[in-house]
Structures are given as structure tokens and as C-alpha cells.
Amino acid sequence: RYGPKMPLAVDCTAELIRCKVLDSSGKLKSHELILSYGLALVRFVNLITEKKQKVANIPLRQLAREVDIPVWVVDLRHELTHGKLPRLALCRKGCDVVLDWLRKMYWSRQLGNNLCEENEDEEEEQDEVEANAEL
């Protein structure tokens, strides 16, 4: 329907779900899954923060905070791009967190916020768990 102008959130969601499907298929090795998740996560952070980028270069961490992307996801993106590849478990966790962000920030709004109202308690619990994990 959108042709080449597919919304970024739709494109990112599709890539992240594709990673989860490949992961659950058991056909790829750990290293291949890390690369697959990694590409999807790097694209997500780059594409979502790109819209906020002004003429001057603003650090990704600051842009991520402005759109409520957890800073550790930006750090994961940095490791995937510039450092040593992270563990598969961290890539899986990043995928789950980003898919949750997309659900809250994009898909729930597309569906008239029906999903947000139904899952408020569950989201609060998840936020507490993530905050404790970061500590």
C-alpha cells in the first residue's frame, strides 16, 4: 500500500520479527543470529533517531532519550557497529525491548491505543524489571 515509502516502524518491526522467526527455526548458528539481530537493531536505532537529527550532529544517546529508547539499546547498537559482537542473549533482549517500544509508540497508536489500556499493569511490571536489571 505504501510502496517505497513504507513507515519506518513497519519496516523495523518486520525485520525484528523476521529475526525472531529465524531464531525459533533453529536453522541458523549463533553467530549468524547475532549478525541478523544486530543488523535489525542497528537499522532501528539509526532510522528512528535519524528523523530527530538536526543540522548539527546530536549524540545518539541524547536522541534516544528524547524518544524514550533505552540508552543501553543505543550502547548495544554502538557495540554492534564499532566493537566486539555481543552475546546472542543480549541481542534477543534488545529485540524484545525494541519490539515492545514499537508496540507502545507505533502499533498501539495505530490501533487506537486499545493495546495500551489493556496492558498497563503488565507494562508497569516490565518497566520495574528492566529498571532493576539496569541497576
Automatic annotation (TrEMBL):
Q: Which domain of life is it from?
A: Eukaryota
Record GO terms (molecular function) = endonuclease activity
Q: Which GO terms describe its biological process?
A: maturation of 5.8S rRNA; maturation of LSU-rRNA
* Alphabetical list of Pfam families matching this protein: Las1
Report one GO cellular component: Las1 complex
Q: What is this protein called?
A: LAS1L protein
| Biological source species | Aegithalos caudatus
Taxonomic classification: Eukaryota, Metazoa, Chordata, Craniata, Vertebrata
Q: Which gene underlies this protein?
A: Las1l
